[in-house]
Amino acid sequence: MSLLIKNGTIVTATSEFTGDLYIEGETIRQIGFNLKVDADRIVDATGRYILPGGVDEHVHYGSFGGRLFETAEAAAVGGTTTIVDFAPQEKDVPLLDAIRRQAAKAEHISSVDFAFHAVIMDPKESVFEEVRHLPEVGVATLKLFMAYKGTSFYCDDEAILNAMMRAKEAGVTMMVHAENADIITILTNHYLSQGKTAPVYHYHARPPIAEEEATGRAIALAKAADCPLFVVHVSAKEAMEAIREAHSQGWPIFGETCTHYLTLTTDYLDKPVFEGAKYICSPPLRPQEHVDAMWHAVREGWLTAVGSDHCALDGGYEGAKKKGTNFSNVPNGCPGVQDRLALLWTYGVCTGKITRQKFVELFATNPAKVVGLPGKGELRVGADADIVIFDPDWKGVITNKDSLHGIDYEPFEGFEIQGRPEQVYLRGRLVAQKGVFVGERGKGQWQKCRPYGLCYDYYHK
Ligand code: URP
Ligand code: ZN
Ligand code: ZN
């Protein structure tokens, strides 16, 4: 099958031009002006932007309480064609087996392409030794949690340093969830002892200093190990500044923020009764000055990518979040994979905060480079034909009834949206059209990541 997309405005991370894209099978074969080729199908994209399919480098499906890969169709309609999920490790399960188990949940189920980050949850010598073998199973990124002390997620500095020492030998990119666990425990107990149980205390118990301290410590550990670092879900201005400072000194220190840290504030946690629980995720939503700082950081390149941290908790609000009796036992996480393009475009591009090129970089090109997927996130000859034909004139509103994430609420309910993916192609096949999934469930493929991703650029040892 071949496809010719004609007369669109092709947007890449570095340029924009009117032209045609010719796709043969699953691959982009030609890009140019007025291409003279025969194709089985021709699509006229006049007045439309042609964007690379999104790469969401931060999602949770079938773990961390998130709903299973059946609901990955939400990604497709939202213009994201590749999701990168975290493979949790159970005690005594080898790291590589944990990845294979998580992949088995996605294969023949996910409707978009998928890849994985490893997660160490059983820190010990045999597991650290496995880190160098991660690229053999197509994994080139590894997350450790500095928060959640007292649970299997938590890793101390010794574990982080041990993992970093192994990661750099194999070109694996280290990721950390940077929040100081002790600050959180002590402040949580403090507020609960005062009867302060409402969701907004989730923010007060996890103040910016908890993120700033852990981010600074992670950077120090990365420097000690001489290991590139990618800090996930950065939300606090001071944490971002620590990353910027280390990076500007020449250290390979990078970070991502997420769509909710660009669009929602602590006020959402303060909604009446217990509704703020819908917005409980970690790090927490921050006051407006932090939101402004996140926009500044993505515009200037101080943060490298924007993920969704999609975690559509099984049970949603009524069946999961509302069951919490106070802020500390509400399960963490919010959906967002379907909304990432819409929010970045409407509140970033349309307001003039970021250019269309920067949008492409944050939404697709850089996430693919960070995780090590050279065939994704770019409109270039030889790349996978993951393509969004984007109608910039469409206007609408985000609502849960149009969401395919499979739970009972939408954190961005009522947000006005400018533009939408008119057609979304996954490796040359049409999978979504005007907000409707039209592909076949389970056609997503496991994408094997290569080591020495973007965080190793200019830093080969
Ligand atoms: O609250 C969040 N972010 N839940 C998902 C797990 C994580 O820390 O990324
Ligand atoms: Zn995290
Ligand atoms: Zn996450």
Automatic annotation (TrEMBL):
SUPFAM superfamilies: Composite domain of metallo-dependent hydrolases, Metallo-dependent hydrolases. One of its GO terms (molecular function) is dihydropyrimidinase activity. CDD domains: D-HYD. It is an enzyme of class 3 (hydrolase). It comes from the Bacteria. Pfam families: Amidohydro_1 (PF01979). InterPro entries: Amidohydro-rel (IPR006680), Hydantoinase/dihydroPyrase (IPR011778), Metal-dep_hydrolase_composite (IPR011059), Metal_Hydrolase (IPR032466), Metallo-dep_Hydrolases_sf (IPR050378). Keywords: Hydrolase, Metal-binding. Its cofactor is Zn(2+). Its EC number is 3.5.2.2. PANTHER family: COLLAPSIN RESPONSE MEDIATOR PROTEIN, HYDRANTOINASE/DIHYDROPYRIMIDINASE FAMILY MEMBER. Belongs to the metallo-dependent hydrolases superfamily. Hydantoinase/dihydropyrimidinase family. This is Dihydropyrimidinase. The gene is hydA.
